Structures are given as structure tokens and as C-alpha cells.
């Protein structure tokens, strides 16, 4: 196991007071060790779980050559005689699940339905709408150039060949994957244990829903956004509630969370305020790699490891993210820093969040030397090109801006002010939030 001193040395080259976002992402990714425990689950319980091993196909899919459409199966050499049309006698019928038992000779064909086995001696299917049938349906005629040899035949193993990997380890199982696995006759699979994530909010001003608001107090919204974002990742959540700004209470919550979970998330309590004790406590029984990012919103963000014992190395460890207290900053830092780590620790192989280009319909003020994630409303114009407008106030306390927006406007570390009409990168919320 890596010691806390080694953990700190891995970021010695960085300034923990203002770490670039890309560096923070690289550091946190490095320390995202996947959970080791593997569980075997039934197929219907596998949705959104992470595959622990490759799924190798035990059969060919499809298991036999079959027709891609309703029509007539025949030997494609009949198309090469040089005659302008082909005439074949109909010697039988094949339905899905009810194959034609005999062999088809030259100048013969078999009526086939979609999915039916292609009869022995046949390699081509002509669609039924391209043929003329005799009055008694015992023969057909069609133009020789209507199809090519081998047309409309799905080969055995064309979808998946026996012995080949159908799904790779690290995949988050989707609805289509359940159908694929069922088509292979697989009813149970090995998946990683769900990641356990504990979270709580800090602050004397916070009230839980149902409590009266005293002067200067506010309802705690961060735990609800955190719960929702974690729920989307299919992790097991442990909500520790609201913890007051008291060192003893914070210490007990952090140690208990570390003993119960793989990752601990807090919101609030990591800035330089006099009542922000979280960072101070972590320096006693944890290890902080960095605590501030060159990022807006989300500058005060602590990352490290916390232990359930009295000092680093004692008890059970958990990765720690101390998120800012402002609601928008919580969501931005979660999606840009925390999300990938949780996926990696779940054993998944996350793909980079896609960025697309859009023309800004308004000028945007931006200070070089930090990455900004502004909220925006993106639309496609009549030509299909993306355009984006910031959602007014970009204050990290205006949570309604996240509900109003449908994308992040991603402004890079070195970028400055954006002129109206200039192209910017956007990250759509669809599929993310």
C-alpha cells in the first residue's frame, strides 16, 4: 500500500495552492484504485454494473446462415448464365425455427422468411418484391441484375464468432448489453462490487429539509445534488447528513466515513475561513495532496486520503474530496474532477466527456490562468451549427443557473476574453447531468 508520504511526493512538482485543472485530473486519476471484490449477479441485476472480466462468446451469433428478409433462397451461380432473367422452381418453404430439410439443386429455390436458415445449396436471397410468381406459385422469375451473388444472407458468426470477446472488462453494462448476453445464452456475469461513497455537508448555517430557517441559515441543497449525481453512477451512498463546524464532530464524521466507504465527499469547510476546520483535521489523520485549483467555479477543492485511525496509516483508508460549499461549484467540481475517479474506482473504463464547438452569441469575460466552466444555453441554428449564450449571472451560488443551462462553456486555462461570434468549446449536459 502506498504511504501518505509517497502520496504527497507524487504532487511535489505542483503548486497545491493553485493547481491547473488538467494536473488535478491527472493526479486524482493516478490514485483511483479499482475495488477488488467481484460479485456474480443474474442478468436482470446487471444493468449499470461494471464487468469484472471479458465476456467470451460460447456460440456463433447467428448460429446459422439465415435470410435477412422475406424472399427466395437459391444458388447464386444462377445469376451468371448470361441470360437477362432467372427462372427457378419453388421446391419448399423455410420459416424461422422451421428450416427446409432437403438440399436445393440448380434451377431450384426455397421460399424463406426473415431469420430462417438458408437451405443447403443456397447462398443468395432475392427479395419477394422483386420476383414474379407463376399462377400456381410453383416457380418464380426475376431480372438477373436484381441481386448479386451472396446478397441478403447473414452468415453464421457474423455478429459474434465463438471464442471472441463479446464485451470487455470495465464496461458499464447497458440495456443493449443485456440483450446481447441473453443472445449468447449467458444468465449470470461477474461484476465489480459497487463503490461505496460517503458524503456530508458542513456548516453551522445549514438546515435539513423540514427544519425551520433561523436568521442567517439556509437549507442544505448540496447533499441532494450529490446524492443525485452519485445515483447516476450506480454507487452505494452513505449520507452522513449535516455536520456542524465543530472539530470534534467533523473528526468523528470523517473517521466514521473512512471506516465505512471507499470515497468520502464533503461540501464546505475547505477554504481559508476561520471556521473551516476540515483541512486542518486532514493534516492530522489524513493526507492532503492539493486544496486549491486554478478553476472557476470550484477554486477551494481539497483532495487526498483520510484514515479511520488516529493518524495516517492507521485504520481504514478512503480517498477524500473536500468540495466547495457553493452549490454550483459542488456540481462543477464533481463533474470535472470527481466523476472520472469514481468511475475508475468502480472498475469502469470511462471515456472523455465530449466537447463540441459553438459560436458564442455574447462576449464572455475570462481571466487567463484558470479554467472556467460557465453555464450556457446551446442551440442549433437552421444550418445545424451550434450557438451558445451564457446564462446571465455566473455566481457559484446561483443554483438556478444550472437548472436553466443545458451545457458548460469550457474556457481553457490560457484563454482570455471571448468576443461575440468567437467559437468556444461546450460540454452538453445531456447524458451527464
Descriptive report:
The structure is a single chain. The chain is of the alpha/beta class. The strands form seven sheets. It has a six-stranded mixed sheet with strand order 8-5-7-6-10-9, with no helix packed on it. A six-stranded mixed sheet has the order 17-14-18-22-21-19, with helices on both faces. Strands 23-25-24-26-27 form a five-stranded mixed barrel. Helix 2 packs parallel to helix 7 (327-345) and helix 4 packs parallel to helix 7. The protein is built from eight helices and 27 strands. The longest helix has 19 residues, at 327-345. The model is unreliable at 1-5 (pLDDT under 50). It folds into four domains: 4-37 and 197-345, 3-Layer(aba) Sandwich (Molybdenum Cofactor Biosythetic Enzyme, Chain A), CATH 3.40.980.10; 41-61 and 160-192, Molybdopterin biosynthesis moea protein, domain 2; 66-154, Beta Complex (Molybdopterin biosynthesis moeA protein, domain 3), CATH 2.170.190.11; 356-428, Beta Barrel (Beta-clip).
Compact description:
By secondary structure, this protein is α/β, with parallel strands linked by helices. The chain has helices spanning 4-9, 21-30, 175-183, 222-232, 247-260, 278-285, 327-345, 400-404, and strands at 19-20, 38-42, 55-56, 66-67, 71-74, 85-94, 108-112, 124-127, 132-133, 139-143, 153-154, 165-167, 188-192, 196-202, 206-207, 218-219, 236-243, 263-267, 286-290, 293-296, 302-307, 317-323, 356-360, 371-380, 386-390, 407-411, 423-428.
Amino acid at each position: 500500500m502506498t504511504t501518505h508520504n509517497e502520496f504527497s511526493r507524487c504532487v511535489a512538482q505542483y503548486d497545491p495552492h493553485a493547481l491547473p485543472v488538467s494536473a488535478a485530473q491527472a493526479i486524482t486519476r493516478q490514485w483511483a484504485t479499482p475495488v477488488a471484490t467481484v460479485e456474480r449477479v443474474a442478468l436482470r441485476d446487471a444493468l449499470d454494473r461494471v464487468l469484472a472480466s471479458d465476456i467470451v462468446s460460447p456460440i456463433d451469433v447467428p448460429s446459422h446462415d439465415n435470410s435477412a428478409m422475406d424472399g427466395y433462397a437459391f444458388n447464386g451461380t444462377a445469376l451468371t448464365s448470361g441470360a437477362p432473367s432467372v427462372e427457378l422452381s419453388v421446391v419448399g418453404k423455410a420459416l424461422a425455427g422451421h428450416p427446409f430439410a432437403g438440399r436445393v439443386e440448380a434451377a431450384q429455390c426455397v421460399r424463406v422468411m426473415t431469420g430462417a436458415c438458408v437451405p443447403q445449396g443456397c447462398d443468395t436471397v432475392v427479395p419477394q418484391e422483386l420476383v414474379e410468381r407463376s399462377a400456381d406459385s410453383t416457380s418464380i422469375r426475376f431480372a438477373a441484375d436484381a441481386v448479386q451473388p451472396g446478397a441478403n444472407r447473414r452468415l453464421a458468426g457474423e455478429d459474434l464468432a465463438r471464442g471472441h470477446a463479446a464485451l470487455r472488462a470495465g464496461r458499464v453494462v447497458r440495456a443493449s448489453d443485456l440483450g446481447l448476453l441473453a443472445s449468447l445464452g449467458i444468465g449470470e456475469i461477474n461484476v465489480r462490487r459497487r463503490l461505496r461513497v460517503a458524503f456530508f455537508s458542513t456548516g453551522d448555517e445549514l438546515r435539513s429539509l423540514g427544519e425551520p430557517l433561523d436568521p442567517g441559515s439556509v437549507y442544505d441543497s448540496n447533499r441532494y445534488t450529490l446524492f443525485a449525481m452519485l445515483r447516476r453512477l450506480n454507487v452505494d451512498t452513505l449520507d452522513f447528513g449535516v455536520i456542524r463546524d465543530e472539530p470534534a464532530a467533523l473528526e468523528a464524521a470523517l473517521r466514521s466515513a473512512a471506516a465505512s466507504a471507499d470515497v468520502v465527499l464533503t461540501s464546505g469547510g475547505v477554504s481559508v475561513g476561520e471556521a473551516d476546520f476540515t483541512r486542518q483535521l486532514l493534516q492530522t489523520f489524513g493526507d492532503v495532496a492539493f486544496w486549491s485549483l486554478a478553476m472557476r467555479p470550484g477554486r477551494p477543492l481539497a483532495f487526498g486520503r483520510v484514515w479511520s485511525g488516529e493518524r495516517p496509516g492507521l485504520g481504514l483508508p478512503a480517498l477524500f474530496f473536500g468540495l466547495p460549499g457553493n452549490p454550483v461549484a459542488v456540481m462543477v467540481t464533481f463533474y470535472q474532477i470527481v466523476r472520472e475517479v469514481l468511475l475508475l474506482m468502480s472498475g469502469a473504463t470511462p471515456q472523455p466527456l465530449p466537447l463540441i464547438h459553438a459560436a458564442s452569441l455574447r462576449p464572455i469575460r475570462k481571466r487567463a490562468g484558470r479554467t472556467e466552466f460557465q453555464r450556457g444555453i446551446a442551440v442549433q441554428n437552421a444550418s445545424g451549427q451550434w450557438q451558445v449564450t451564457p446564462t446571465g449571472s455566473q455566481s457559484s451560488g446561483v443554483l438556478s443557473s444550472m437548472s436553466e443551462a443545458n451545457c458548460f462553456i469550457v474556457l481553457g486555462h490560457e484563454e482570455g476574453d471571448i468576443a461575440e461570434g468567437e467559437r468556444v468549446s461546450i460540454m452538453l449536459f445531456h447524458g451527464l447531468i
